[in-house]
Amino acid sequence: MVMSTSLRRCGRRLVFSVFNNREFSTTCQGSKVIQHHEQLQETGKSLNLCSAINQALHIALETDPRSYVFGEDVSFGGVFRCTKGLAEKFGKKRVFNTPLCEQGIVGFGIGLAAMDNRAIAEIQFADYIFPAFDQIVNEAAKFRYRSGNQFNCGGLTIRTPYGAVGHGGHYHSQSPEAFFCHVPGIKVVVPRSPREAKGLLLSCIRDTNPVIFFEPKWLYRLAVEEVPEHDYMLPLSEAEVIREGSDITLVGWGAQLSIMEQACFDAEKEGISCELIDLKTLIPWDKETVETSVRKTGRLLISHEAPVTGGFGAEISASIVERCFLRLEAPVARICGLDTPFPLVFEPFYIPTKNKIVDAIKATVNY
Amino acid sequence: MALSHLKSSSSRSNLVKPLAAAFSLRRLISTSTDPITIETSVPFATHRCDPPSRTVETNPQELLSFFRVMATMRRMEIAADSLYKAKLIRGFCHLYDGQEAVAVGMEAAITKKDSIITAYRDHCTFLGRGGTLLEVFSELMGRQGGCSKGKGGSMHFYKKDSGFYGGHGIVGAQVPLGCGLAFAHKYNKDDAVAFALYGDGAANQGQLFEALNISALWDLPVILVCENNHYGMGTAEWRAAKSPAYYKRGDYVPGLKVDGMDAFAVKQACKFAKEHALKSGPIILEMDTYRYHGHSMSDPGSTYRTRDEISGVRQERDPIERIRKLILAHDLATEKELKDIEKEVRKQVDEAIAEAKESPMPEPSELFTNVYVKGLGVEAYGADRKEVRAVLP
């Protein structure tokens, strides 16, 4: 079990029951690069999410001489130490600091990628991505389309840490994924654990479309699990059922999954069997896996940290209602951040906590 | 803490000195406004303008108040550091110690009718604008008594009644706002100017150049103040900027490079800049300064620079030590009396912290206020759209 083994280590804050590792197997059929979970385990080393990302970046730079890592402070290792040791190993020509200019960083990355390079850009916090919004939405996402496929920036991957950390305040806590899910032409990926992060990041870097990779900064140090040392990729646009159940389907991504997982344990104690799905890729997303699950359970709950209105939960909800209208036994529930700016002292009220999710699970099941 | 308040409190203190024209004899320093002339530390470097005079006029009262205010700022930031480490301050916290001369010198040259807008390193600018220690510490700890009612935290200090437009968390984003403030000043013909502060890291943001063009195009009375502390987070200026001569960055906009560790050089430059801005539009002031702390609390500040460099600046250029030396050289107070001021300041800071800790946390309902204008009637949804639903207050 991915999350619980890792999060148990943080002791008092998160209490988990111990699960068999196999139950949370990282499914990886359908791609020849991907090893089976059992094999991954054999060679695995215990890593936190930050180190797993670091390892992925090492592999990306090692395996492709035309790959580059750049962003604010990355050559020193970055503010979260995710790019530690890269500049020393691969040189300042391939791993370099940029000035403080997000718009410039992404625009530069698009140009670099347009000449068949792998541009791995870091935006220091997802909250700082907005100066680059124009470049992402108007330049990166539409380059292929408007040039009639003459040009593209498929080699561009933007890594950026997102989400609450307990005390980040207004500008170090936001989850802006939904803004980018409104933009055809880019992919949005969010990993939930170290092993997932490494495999998904390598897939993103090698994907032939521009990708935004949101890293759950809350889990950088907190999530620890066995991560294979070798080069492996996990498929994009493939969701994963990380816990099987029969009464209700829970869909989430990134750090929120660990909260939802705890809610599943609590609900189970009350006799409710929850199926938990990690969406992993938000756009283009795996509707089939979610649909299959909802057809089985007849109920759906979506949870994310971003405000509920216009969040990506709305899109999932609408799509599933379209597909499973006659199978649904209760309205789709969304347990999300509130419709307020991300608060400082009120963070505990704002975030979609375990208890909020448990309440909604009960309300939906007893509808 | 307002300058005026500090002056009055210094008059209550024991700094009673005999009076003499040649300063050889002691006098009542707190009330004396007899002029003293002081030379700025280094000449101003200029870009497309003539430099202001290096000779600055001051008086004992101002010198002592500079000392007291800067000592307060320094002590306040050190205390904030401890409070952060004790986890009483959460969120992000960027400290200003080392850069005090900029806030103090600027304030001495302008009035509260002029507006100031800055980035997230805003505690001391707020204090200079007349904020109180209690408001500072309450806000830092997220209490009701804070200057933003505890809803903003370290990066979001504001003081409307004295033209302090805050407190902005996104690097460089406040500079175009400063142009808007300046336009309003110009349109209202109120003979006031806007000071838009930013750091050397922010100087590389695209919006800065947009702001420069707009303000020059429309002759806006805006002063772009680059507080060059030489490090954008962990990156030395020369690694991030092709030209670290930020005062020349405006090309067609005149600029002045100022010793930002010398409060009187800052004062002189700001006075000059205000006159220039009112008459002929924008000007850049590059304040050559230094921060002793790391960029924020998560940066120890010692990985990208040497300890020798930091202690060298402390010894050679410290803004408070400069004022202390001036006071002693002009025989306006004894070393002991200055030490007493520092002790007094320390006590005020401690008292403010104790009082701030008593201030309650904001009411939970405040989570939903100020999202839109009051009474707009917008419905907000709770975590679950079905269970929690409220009309925003």
UniProtKB/TrEMBL annotation, chain A:
Could you tell me the EC number(s) of this protein? 1.2.4.4
Domain Transketolase-like pyrimidine-binding: start-end pairs: 47-222
- Record GO biological process: branched-chain amino acid catabolic process; response to nutrient
Q: Name one GO cellular component term.
A: mitochondrial matrix
Keyword field contains Mitochondrion: yes
Q: Which reaction does it catalyse?
A: N(6)-[(R)-lipoyl]-L-lysyl-[protein] + 3-methyl-2-oxobutanoate + H(+) = N(6)-[(R)-S(8)-2-methylpropanoyldihydrolipoyl]-L-lysyl-[protein] + CO2
The protein's UniProt keywords, in alphabetical order, are: Mitochondrion, Oxidoreductase, Transit peptide
GO MF annotation: an example: branched-chain 2-oxo acid dehydrogenase activity
Q: Which domain of life is it from?
A: Eukaryota
Q: Which InterPro entries does the UniProt record give?
A: THDP-binding (IPR029061), Transketo_C/PFOR_II (IPR009014), Transketolase-like_Pyr-bd (IPR005475), Transketolase_C (IPR033248)
Keyword Transit peptide recorded: yes
Question: Which cofactors, by name?
Answer: thiamine diphosphate
Q: Where in the cell is it found?
A: Mitochondrion matrix
Q: How does it assemble?
A: Heterotetramer of alpha and beta chains.
Protein name per Swiss-Prot or TrEMBL:
3-methyl-2-oxobutanoate dehydrogenase (2-methylpropanoyl-transferring)
Q: What phylogenetic lineage does the species belong to?
A: Eukaryota, Viridiplantae, Streptophyta, Embryophyta, Tracheophyta
Automatic annotation (TrEMBL), chain B:
Instruction: Report a single Gene Ontology molecular function.
Output: pyruvate dehydrogenase (acetyl-transferring) activity
As recorded in UniProt, its EC number(s) are 1.2.4.1
Question: By its UniProt entry, which Gene3D superfamilies does this protein fall under?
Answer: 3.40.50.970
Provide the GO biological process annotations: pyruvate decarboxylation to acetyl-CoA
Q: Which Pfam families match?
A: E1_dh
- The signal sequence is none
Q: Report domain Dehydrogenase E1 component positions.
A: 70-364
Annotated TM spans: none
Which residue intervals are annotated with compositional bias (Basic and acidic residues) in the record?
305-315
Q: Decide whether keyword Oxidoreductase is in the record.
A: yes
Required co-factors: thiamine diphosphate
Which SUPFAM superfamilies does its entry note? Thiamin diphosphate-binding fold (THDP-binding)
Q: Which reaction does it catalyse?
A: N(6)-[(R)-lipoyl]-L-lysyl-[protein] + pyruvate + H(+) = N(6)-[(R)-S(8)-acetyldihydrolipoyl]-L-lysyl-[protein] + CO2
Task: Tell me which domain of life the UniProt entry assigns to the organism this sequence originates from.
Answer: Eukaryota
Location of the region described as Disordered in the Swiss-Prot/TrEMBL record: 296-315
- The top EC class is oxidoreductase
The protein's matches in InterPro entries, at most eight in alphabetical order, are given as: DH_E1 (IPR001017), PDH_E1_Alpha_Subunit (IPR050642), Pyrv_DH_E1_asu_subgrp-y (IPR017597), THDP-binding (IPR029061)
Question: Could you tell me the keywords of this UniProt record?
Answer: Oxidoreductase, Pyruvate, Thiamine pyrophosphate
Quaternary state and partners of this protein?
Answer: Tetramer of 2 alpha and 2 beta subunits.
Function comment: The pyruvate dehydrogenase complex catalyzes the overall conversion of pyruvate to acetyl-CoA and CO(2). It contains multiple copies of three enzymatic components: pyruvate dehydrogenase (E1), dihydrolipoamide acetyltransferase (E2) and lipoamide dehydrogenase (E3).
The molecule here is called: Pyruvate dehydrogenase E1 component subunit alpha
Organism the protein comes from: Salix purpurea (Purple osier willow)
